[in-house]
Amino acid sequence: MTETVEPIGRPVRTPKTAELIATDLRNRIVRAELRPGDALPSETLLMAQFGVSRPTLREAFRILETESLIAVRRGVRGGAHVLAPDRAVASRYVGLLLQIRGTTIDDVHQARAVLEAACAARLARTRTRQDLLDLRACVDDLRTAADAALWARHAARFHDLVLQRCGNRTLAVQCGVLQDIVATHTGRGPAGAAHDGRLLRSYARLTDLVEAKDADGAERHWRTHLELPIRGAQRSKAIVDLFR
Questions:
Q1: Which tens digit of pLDDT belongs to each residue from 41-81?
Q2: CATH number of this structure's domain 17-82
Q3: How far does CA 62 lie from the centroid of its chain?
Q4: CATH superfamily for domain 88-237
Q5: C-beta of residue 109 within 8 angstroms of C-beta of residue 186
Q6: Helical pair 169-186 and 87-100, crossing angle rounded to 10 deg
Q7: 3-class secondary structure for 139-193?
């Protein structure tokens, strides 16, 4: 009787040399052996170090450029320089994925409200004196904002403070990506008033709740604040579109 053996293997693709070089350089950037602003060695030196041709090295550069980890300037005074990882890269990819799936802006708003409200609760539990000072300063800036552009800038700063000071980097990055997608669409609409009394009171109220270390209250309040745009019927039907 012939024994039947179930296959356990699968085809394995050998990485191209350019991919291996890109991985090596990427790891150096992640480990901070190469820092933002640093210039990579010349192409001639890197070709000798890796033992590869110029086209192979430039293919590795293109991979890292696509990931926004380096910028390459051509010419006599050119060369490759390390960039700081940019959240906008992740925002574009996530936005594209959501757009392909026909996701509505309402859907993105809901997810953002859940995540950022959770960040507000964490901030209320762990806030420091400096956190409070920065939040209060941001509210003061909102109160004196002379035009819509200034208001938007200070409001974005307030939201970023909630994310960055919550003590969880994963939550902060995920919510920041959704924030970027929402901001892309918000920026296409008509400019709002430079000073919105109701919104200003809402920012100040969250700051009070954070100061009181009322995590549950901060989460409820901030989720209500963030869900306000969801109630617009037009926006709820709009599909995520980052390429208009």
A1: 999 999 999 999 999 999 999 999 988 899 998 776 778 99
A2: 1.10.10.10
A3: 22
A4: GntR ligand-binding domain-like (1.20.120.530)
A5: no
A6: 70
A7: HHHHHCCCCHHHHHHHHHHHHHHHHHCCCCHHHHHHHHHHHHHHHHHHCCCCCCC
pTM check: above 0.85 = no
Q: Which of 197, 224, 196 is nearest to 209 (CA)?
A: 224
Locate the domains of the chain by residue range: 17-82, 88-237
How far apart, in whole angstroms, are the C-alpha atoms of residue 121 and residue 227?
Answer: 16
What single string gives the DSSP state of each residue in the chain?
A: -PPP--------PPPPHHHHHHHHHHHHHHTTSS-TTPBPPPHHHHHHHHT--HHHHHHHHHHHHHTTSEEEE-STT-EEEE----HHHHHHHHHHHHHHTT-BHHHHHHHHHHHHHHHHHHHHHH--HHHHHHHHHHHHHHHT--SHHHHHHHHHHHHHHHHHTSS-HHHHHHHHHHHHHHHHHHTTS----S--HHHHHHHHHHHHHHHTT-HHHHHHHHHHHHHGGGG-HHHHHPBP-S--
Phi, psi dihedrals of residue 208, rounded to the nearest 5°: -60, -45
CA angle 179/201/205 to nearest 5° reads: 80
Measured distance CA(208)–CA(25) in Å, rounded: 46
- What digits encode the pLDDT tens for the residues 95-110? 889 989 989 888 999 9
The per-residue pLDDT for 191 is: 45
